[in-house]
Each structure stands twice: as C-alpha cells, then as structure tokens.
Design a protein that fits this description.
Rossmann fold; alpha/beta; about 45% helix; about 180 residues; two-stranded antiparallel ribbon
Length: about 180
Amino acid sequence: MKLLLGVSGSIGAYKAMDIMRLFQKNGHEVTVVMTRAATQIIAPLTFETFAPGKVYSELFAAGQDPLLHINLSKENDLLLIAPATANTIGKMANGIADDLLSTLFCAFFKRVVVAPAMNTHMLENPAVIDNIDRLKSRGVEIIEAAEGVLANREIGKGRLPDSETIYRHCLKINSV
C-alpha cells in the first residue's frame, strides 16, 4: 500500500513518527504531508531521515511540483491524517483548502482515515462534533480518540490512539 500520512499540529504529532515507521516496517511506502503547525512540534527533518524526498509541508514551495496535491492523490492508496486537529477537521468538513494537507484532502477520492487528537474540551465542542459527523457522513473513517493523560495533565478523551491500533484500522479499511 502507498500511504499518505497527514500530520497536523497536535502534540500527538510526535507519535506520527512511530506510525510512519510501523507502516514502513511492514513494507508500505509512506509519504508525509505536514501542516505548518505540525512543523512547529516535530521537525520535517525527523521524518525526512526515514522517508527521504517524501516529506512535504508547503503548497507552493520553490522548485516543487505546483500540482503536487493532485499527483499525490493519484499516486497513493490511502490518506491517513494522524493526528488530526480541530482546525484540520474543520477545514476538511467545510471544504477549505488553504494549505497542502487540506488541498490534498479535497483532491483525494480514495479511502481517508482520520485520527482526531486534541484536548477533551475541544473534542466535545459541538462544532467539532458536527464536523466529525459531517466527515463520517461523507465516508471518512474516524478512529476514535483514546482516553488517558492529556497535554495539560488532565485525564480524558482526546489522545491519539497507539500506532498499532491506527495501523490495524488502516489495513482493515484498505482491504474493503
């Protein structure tokens, strides 16, 4: 399988490296697309070390294919966004395409899996709930957030699920 791994700006972004390595270890090709906020949490160089030439964070970077979002959507089998922030989910649900990841989502007509990760209060916000429901109604697979200690040291729902859970879910979805 050729996987697009979208990484948005949740503190859970550090787990995306484990997700990428798990897919690679099992023979899958992974291309990483990061939001600008994600690059503030984990450096693109961290991903580039294990996926040379397959890490992108800008929609129109110098020397980059101006149709990158279209070509990536054609070349890959599955789009996994993990972690998915409230901002990224909101863009997806409302068709806002103002960065590489949201533009790629709008161009992607194959299977999409989203793993939300954010504070419990954000996850329970009616607008976020509506956006997740809208994505579900359009066929986007949502992996439910895990419970545990959050970034603010509270305990609640909102953690990015473990890498193995995400991996198994994607394999199941891609085989359907």
